[in-house]
Amino acid sequence: MAYENIIFEIEENVAIIKFNRPKALNAINPALLADVRDVLEKIEADPSVKVLILTGEGEKAFVAGADISHMVNLSPLQARLFSQEGHDLMFKLETLSIPVIACVNGFALGGGTEIAMACDFIYVSENAKFGQPEINLGIMPGFGGTQRLSRVVGKAMAKELCMSGGMISAREAKDIGLVNKVFPPENLWEETMKTANVLASKGKVSMRAVKQCIDRGFDVDMRTGCYMEADAFALCMASPDGKEGMSAFLEKRKPEFKGEVS
Ligand code: DAK
To answer: Residue 37 burial (CB < 10 Å; 0-12/13-18/19+)?
Structure first.
């Protein structure tokens, strides 16, 4: 199915969503949110998909934020709905059972930074720029920026970014721990795909267990997190992939993971 606001492709086991409104620097409107939501449902239902990459179409932007021409006319109630739709999508991305990589090839501002933070990790090109510039518009982050940013980079840095509305470079984003790796623009896609293929070669059951334990464990105390880890570990041990991975090591062959729970 073709979408109006995104390009959706699957390359072997890797699904790719490209935000595709380049004339508006891929700014987010409700139609784009709906397209992404639809695709995430398809991805979750397709056992062959093992990794998702989000990126922006065009040379300039990942996502330059929520579409200001849409937001300017919203009533407070409509704004709440738009914000809620955004939050729902971020949670959906965050809790997707497969790893999600944000491949940031330019501006990631406002909602763009917020989408990238809802991914498992972020790879960027040297020309990427991050920021929460909503304060410059007399508003504030509405897709989780005040919450996720402080959890990723700490309260003081999150406050500086959200209060100043300033942009930071790819290198600064790396220095504060917002992004994992910075590449020259011409290498970004290849490097992202290389990592995606590494992740796609692992077992889906243990991949999901790792993702859930790290994410959910972050919100609870250490002891509860370790109980969660013990349960998830038991699930991995009970899964055919667990047996296959360890047998393959002992038999000196490559494992063939099936991603089945039993
Ligand atoms: N929305 C709509 N159009 C945008 C846009 C955006 N966010 N960003 C860029 N564009 C459009 C420009 O208007 C321009 O359109 P034309 O004039 O060509 O028709 C085109 O993209 C190219 O942009 P520029 O000509 O400005 O390109 P430059 O290279 O000069 O500058 C820029 C690039 C990214 C620095 C600049 O475009 C810029 O500052 N853009 C705005 C960035 C921004 O402020 N982003 C944050 C948006 S606010 C909430 C829900 C969500 C949110 C908040 C609350 N609730 C409902 C509670 C989230 C808010 C945001 O994300």
So the answer is: middle
134 tagged catalytic: yes
* Closest protein CA for atom 4 of ligand 1: 24
User: What tokens does 233 get?
Assistant: 């570990």
pLDDT one-digit tens code per residue, 200-219: 999 999 999 999 999 999 99
51 in contact with ligand 1, CB cutoff 6 A: no
User: In the CATH hierarchy, which top-level class contains the domain 6-200?
Assistant: alpha beta
- Can you give the residue ranges of every domain in the chain? 6-200, 204-250
What number of other Cβ atoms are within 10 A of residue 189's Cβ?
Answer: 17
Q: Which of 28, 32, 68, 84 to mutate to test the pocket of ligand 1 (most atoms within 8 A of CB)?
A: 68
Residue 245 has which token pair? 């991975």
